[in-house]
Amino acid sequence: MTGRRRLTRAFFARPAVEVAPDLLGRTLVRILPDGRRLAGRIVETEAYEPGDPASHGFRRMSPRNATMFGRPGFLYVYFTYGNHWMGNVVARRVGEPSAVLLRALEPLEGTAEMASFRGRGSPMDLCSGPGKLCRALAIDRRLDGAGLVRGPAVWLEEGTPAEPNAIATTGRVGVSVGVEPQWRFLVRSDPFVSRGRPGPPR
DNA sequence: CGTTGGATTGGCT
DNA sequence: GCCAATCCAACGC
């Protein structure tokens, strides 16, 4: 693909509401323990900011959410609904819990491995949801706190950023706490986005 | 220490 | 479209 350079610390050290749309069109790369490379184009994200009642960072720091409170440019991985891992990119700076949830990818490399991990073959059903893409890329607790800027296991490449007029926004999926801002970002009409319905409109 | 419900998914109606 | 599955962090007593 196009931009193969890694995104730098400065890219992540901004508010999540800026990082989230800027991640659309970028390439998420995952190197498996045996060296195989998996990759996908990001087509859907959500922002979680400090003071946000829907964010894990809204409460006090704990072993579970500690990564969110740390430096930007690291992966925050958590477990939910008894089955699913969620992958987030930490934004802003130390002490300002902020992250971008990776919600959907278009599979680009290693689709056979993804299909194997997912137990499904359809390209549009491999990474079209936050839990699905973590399963497809073998992302779990072991990658919580992984460095995206210099680390060997997972990172982001420049790719081809989505055109601003190709980006749609909605309320976040599964969020119904207080007034819900339009902090879900997706590539308009992209067939690889999740089927999750956004929360109540503002 | 017991209860509650979640940044979801997949299978069934 | 609807709903059960399944674990565990957070919170209340």
Tell me the layout of helices and strands:
Blueprint: E1 3-6, H1 9-12, H2 16-22, E2 27-31, E3 37-48, E4 75-80, E5 84-90, E6 99-109, H3 111-118, H4 130-136, E7 154-159, E8 167-170, E9 184-187
Antiparallel strand pairs: 1-7, 2-3, 2-7, 3-6, 3-9, 4-5, 5-6, 8-9
The structure holds a DNA duplex (13 and 13 nucleotides).
Which features does this protein show?
alpha+beta, 4 helices, 202 residues, 3-methyladenine DNA Glycosylase, Chain A, DNA-binding, nine-stranded antiparallel beta sheet
Instruction: Look at the structure and give the mean pLDDT.
Output: 95
How many domain units? 1
CATH architecture: Roll
Low-confidence regions: none
Question: What does this protein structure show overall?
Answer:
The chain has 202 residues and is of the alpha+beta class. The protein has a single domain (2-186), classed as Roll (3-methyladenine DNA Glycosylase, Chain A), CATH 3.10.300. The protein is 13% helix and 29% strand. Strands 1, 2, 3, 4, 5, 6, 7, 8 and 9 form a nine-stranded antiparallel β-sheet that branches. Strand 4 (75-80) and strand 5 (84-90) form a beta hairpin. The protein starts with a strand and ends in a 15-residue tail after the last strand. The model has no long low-confidence stretch (mean pLDDT 95). It binds a DNA duplex (13 and 13 nucleotides) through strand 4, strand 5 and helix 4.
